[in-house]
Amino acid sequence: MAAPVTIRILGVGMGPHHVTPEVAEALRTTDYVLAADKSGDDPLLALRREIVRAYPGPAGPVEVIAVPDPQRDRSAGLSTRGYESAVTDWHDARAAEYASILRQRGGRAAFLVWGDPSLYDSTIRIVEKVRALGVELDYDVLPGISAPQLLAARHRIVLHEVGRPVHVTTGRRLQEAVTVGLDNIVAMLNPAPERLDLTGLQDWSLWWGANLGAPGERLIHGRLGDVLPDVRAARTEAEARDGWVMDVFLVRKPR
Ligand SMILES: C[S@@+](CC[C@H](N)C(=O)[O-])C[C@H]1O[C@@H](n2cnc3c(N)ncnc32)[C@H](O)[C@@H]1O
Fold this sequence. Notes:
Bound molecules: S-adenosylmethionine
Number of helices: 7
Helix content: 25-40%
CATH superfamily of the largest domain: Tetrapyrrole methylase, N-terminal domain
Shape: globular
Largest sheet: 5 strands, parallel
Strand content: 15-25%
Strand order of the largest sheet: 3-2-4-1-5
CATH topology of the largest domain: Cobalt-precorrin-4 Transmethylase, domain 1
Number of strands: 10
């Protein structure tokens, strides 16, 4: 019987400079990296290639197998249930693609996870789906620096006040958190600010960051109602500089 495929799920932070020694060592000793290719000209795939090139093994950088990413229903009007079902279908399709490559190639494979695998990343779930499709595999997970950690470091803040909680959610669910009384919230996976519901948050403090760790990095802090126009402009600048934009922010109710 063939040996199980070994899979390493590697958190790579926000770029080559965040790769920890243990992730670098894992990269040097893997046979190939599987990476989703969202468009044929995917800037995040290019970043993954850059990371691999920065940590070559004895025979040079490990091979990156770009796997065309199945289409996902991204309609703006999807309900939360519709969104979740679109994501499940997309993960199933991704798992099927990866399973077919892993069956053919076997050996030691790695996935490079942007940031840390524990936050808004589905690689662990997808690898479990691959296993459920009958691929014999073992896997482990190595951590990386996540976007909220980098946001806090750049702004030189703690994400919560002494002994108090922080809630991490998505931009889409921000108002849900506000409605139940949460008052110190990190939001990720955000649409552009004009499509974000910021009702009632004008007086809250905002710590915002886009493209953290990249040349287009932008940071803004202030009363949300005052700095929102700056956020819009900075988001546009970050995208113009890097060819992609992702932002994360902390909002806190005034005390
Ligand atoms: C799919 S999630 C991945 C999160 C990642 N696993 C982590 O640990 O941060 C993508 C979201 O993370 C945040 N993010 C990722 N990279 C970022 C960056 N360089 N600058 C700002 N936010 C980032 C954004 O909110 C983005 O929409």
